[in-house]
Design a protein that fits this description.
Two copies of one chain form a homodimer. Chain A is built from ten helices and eleven strands. Chain A is α+β, with helices and mostly antiparallel strands. Chain A folds into two domains: about 120 residues, Sandwich (Jelly Rolls), CATH 2.60.120.10; about 90 residues, Orthogonal Bundle (Arc Repressor Mutant, subunit A). The model of chain A has no long low-confidence stretch (mean pLDDT about 90). Chain B binds a DNA duplex through helix 8.
Chain lengths: ~240, ~240
DNA sequence: CGTCGGGTTGATAACTTTCAAATTTCGTGG
DNA sequence: CCACGAAATTTGAAAGTTATCAACCCGACG
């Protein structure tokens, strides 16, 4: 019971988890906390001695620019860690905000390290997940640097899709996606108006539909090809190295 | 002697290093290897059980796009680790190439972990450095997403400058920089032609000069202000937390 | 109803790329 | 030390992409 939490599900694709490990994982989900949409979980400059696991809902990490615009660094979906970096290392210069109403579980550094010592395989899995997160930031960077608006949008929505699939929340047919076009604009470094036009193009080209909180892949393979999306870096689960 | 290696110098700004720690650091610099400019150190997909420390010269990590263009993820300067991620975690989807002739020291995962166990403060320092690297990737992402060409270029050259200062290779007056305008274009997600125009603007505005392998800050403070550059995230050396 | 936040669309402006052609710099061999 | 060729830099003009501005529409909700 409880082992089908999004986190367990995600880590399970990296290493096969034992009963004991699942138990340790479920221990993480003490100290629940709920936030409403738009509420801040972490302000830049803050140095917390704990991280969070996102149990339900979507969050995002972002940085505000002087002119009032912002750049979203990444979205977090159920099963993702929030602020893992600022616990392990030094505080980062960004905010974390709830995109939808969310539920998080607070995990103290102590609990985390404790768990790592007791179950090294869990540590491996978490490090893999962290590594994947970092790879995604790099991929996002590539996206912003060298892809035009339509490829960028395609690639991003595919990546998000892969993550949702990993978390057991989506398929290659599509997934629920509560993002507004404004949020999409902020993560893709585009204007909301242009995002709107791009989404129309994708729809008209029969590639994907973004509507009413739902992303639908109309032609997954063609979209993957078009966006130059590398499926492997997300789904070749290297079961326990 | 030897403790004024770029790496020692850099880590020294994070924690004060003892003689013993400096000795351990110098041990890292066995197994030297030299590469000529343009040579690849790491291909994407490769999974090495060792990382490298850049002893001299500049390198870059980048990803090739289908259309032949590329996006440079980051440059590495003396004192930086190369491929640290792919040793700790899983192999990343990018290449590492020598920008100038370089000298690297190979560090096996074993040696690294050994050093960490013997000298935890060194581990702290290295993790801080890694954290700083990650923060820089995030800042680079912000740069690509939300700054126009001239702010972007300014910000990037300032950041590089901060790193050079940390490594003891530059000052707020300027630093040696062996990058061509093509390389600058590849890291900033712009065309080489446009980089050229941007550099001219910066020169004409009396902000900075990029010439013959030398970046000269003509007006450091005004440049920092203009680029919305956050000095603190690089130089507030939190001496041993 | 009336408002309000998203979404949609058109027109125009701003920014950046591309293409093409000098011009300069720099390393190398004579 | 000089000449030469390759590579890097520089500049102009035209084309392409994306942002901005200004409406308008629509459904949710009090």
């Amino acid at each position: 019971m409880g082992q089908d939490s999004p986190l367990a599900r995600k880590l399970g694709t990296y290493v096969v988890l034992s009963e004991e490990e699942l138990l340790v994982l479920s221990k993480f989900h003490q100290r629940r906390r709920s936030l409403t949409a738009g509420q801040d979980l972490l302000h830049q400059g803050e140095t917390k001695q704990s991280a969070y696991i996102l149990a339900s809902g979507w969050a995002c990490s972002y940085k505000l620019m002087r002119d009032g615009t912002r750049q979203i660094i990444d979205f977090q979906i159920p099963g993702d860690f929030l602020g893992l970096r600022s616990i392990l290392f030094r505080t980062a210069d960004h905010n974390i905000e709830a995109v939808t109403p969310i539920e998080v579980s607070e995990v103290s550094m102590h609990d985390l390290i404790d768990a790592f010592v007791k179950t090294p395989r869990l540590a491996t899995a978490v490090l893999w997940a962290a590594s994947r997160d970092e790879a995604m930031v790099v991929e996002h960077l590539i996206n912003l640097g060298r892809r035009d608006a339509i490829e960028r949008t395609s690639h991003f929505l595919l990546e998000l899709g892969s993550r949702m699939i990993l978390a057991g929340l989506g398929t290659t047919k599509g997934y629920p996606c509560p993002l507004s076009q404004y949020l999409l604009a902020d993560v893709l470094g585009l204007s909301a108006v242009h995002i709107n036009r791009v989404l129309r193009q994708l729809r008209e080209n029969g590639l994907l539909t973004f509507r009413r909180g739902l992303v639908t892949f109309e032609d997954f393979d063609r979209l993957v090809e078009f966006a130059e999306f590398d499926k492997s870096y997300l789904d070749d689960g290297p079961l326990l190295r």
